[in-house]
Amino acid sequence: MDKTELKKLRALDTKIASGEIDENDFKQHFELEDHSENIYKGCCNYSTDRRLLILGTQIGLSGAMLCFSAAMLATGDDDGGLYMSMISSILAFWMGKSNDFEKK
Predict the structure, then answer these.
(1) Could you tell me if residue 80 is left (phi over 0), alpha (psi between -120 and 50 degrees) or otherwise beta?
(2) pTM for the whole structure
(3) Cα–Cα distance between 97 and 104 in angstroms, integer?
C-alpha cells in the first residue's frame, strides 16, 4: 500500500469514527483495506478464509460436545450436573456471540 492509499484510508477512518460516512466512502474503505491477513494457505494450493475456518471449528466442537452431553444425560448413569453445565456453557457462549454482533 503506497502513501496516497494510506492517506485516503486514514481520512476514511476519521470519517467513520465521526459517523459521517456514506455508501461510496464505505466501498472505498473496503477496497483500500488489506484483507490478506485473513487468508489461510494450506498444502496442495488450498486457501480459505481464516475466520471461516475458526467458525467452522467452533461449530463442530460445540456440536460434538452437545451431542456427547445429551447422550450421557440420556443414559442416566450419572446425576448429570457436569453434562448440564457443559450444555449451558456452550449455549451461553453462542448466545453471547449474537450480542457481540448487535453492538457493531
Answers:
(1) left
(2) 0.57
(3) 12
- pLDDT tens track for 24-52: 776 776 666 666 667 777 777 777 888 88
For the chain, how big is the Rg over CA atoms in Å? 22
Report which of 16, 46, 48 is spatially closest to residue 33, judged by C-alpha positions.
16
- For 69, counting Cβ atoms within 10 Å of its Cβ (0-12 exposed, 13-18 middle, 19+ buried), the class is buried
- Grid coordinates standing for 9? 484510508
Residue 55: closest CA among 99, 95, 104, 94 = 94
Count of CB atoms within 10 A of residue 43's CB?
A: 5
Query: How many C-beta atoms surround the C-beta of residue 84 within 10 A?
Result: 13
How open is the CA angle 92-70-52, to the nearest 5 degrees? Answer: 50
